[in-house]
Amino acid sequence: MDATAAALLGAGFAAIGAGLAALGVGNVFASFLEGALRNPGAADAQQGRLFIGFAAAELLGLLAFVIAVLLIFSN
């Protein structure tokens, strides 16, 4: 396998991380909604943690996208 094929294969694997980040964001919001419906009084206190979890999941997705782009265009 030559270097170009390996880079494109690695970029494809890195792109999977962007899709998994979308699942992570969905999981963060689903957990927040489940907790907010069980205890509505605590929802306001947990909203900051919701946005931190959202930002962390999106950061991992963007990082996977940047790595994929770097692998594609590095040759």
Automatic annotation (TrEMBL):
TM regions (residue ranges): 50-73
Name this polypeptide is given: ATP synthase subunit c
Compartment(s) where it occurs, according to its Swiss-Prot or TrEMBL record: Cell membrane; Membrane
Organism, scientific name: Erythrobacter fulvus
InterPro entries named in the record: ATP_synth_F0_csu, ATP_synth_F0_csu_sf, ATPase_proteolipid_c-like_dom, F/V-ATP_Csub_sf
Cell membrane recorded as keyword: yes
Family assignment from sequence similarity: Belongs to the ATPase C chain family.
Keyword Ion transport recorded: yes
Domain V-ATPase proteolipid subunit C-like: 9-71
Pfam families: ATP-synt_C
Keyword entries, A-Z: ATP synthesis, Cell membrane, CF(0), Hydrogen ion transport, Ion transport, Lipid-binding, Membrane, Transmembrane, Transmembrane helix, Transport
Coiled-coil features, chain-numbered ranges: none
Function: F(1)F(0) ATP synthase produces ATP from ADP in the presence of a proton or sodium gradient. F-type ATPases consist of two structural domains, F(1) containing the extramembraneous catalytic core and F(0) containing the membrane proton channel, linked together by a central stalk and a peripheral stalk. During catalysis, ATP synthesis in the catalytic domain of F(1) is coupled via a rotary mechanism of the central stalk subunits to proton translocation.
Annotated site (Reversibly protonated during proton transport): E58
NCBIfam families in UniProt: PRK07558.1
Membrane topology: Multi-pass membrane protein
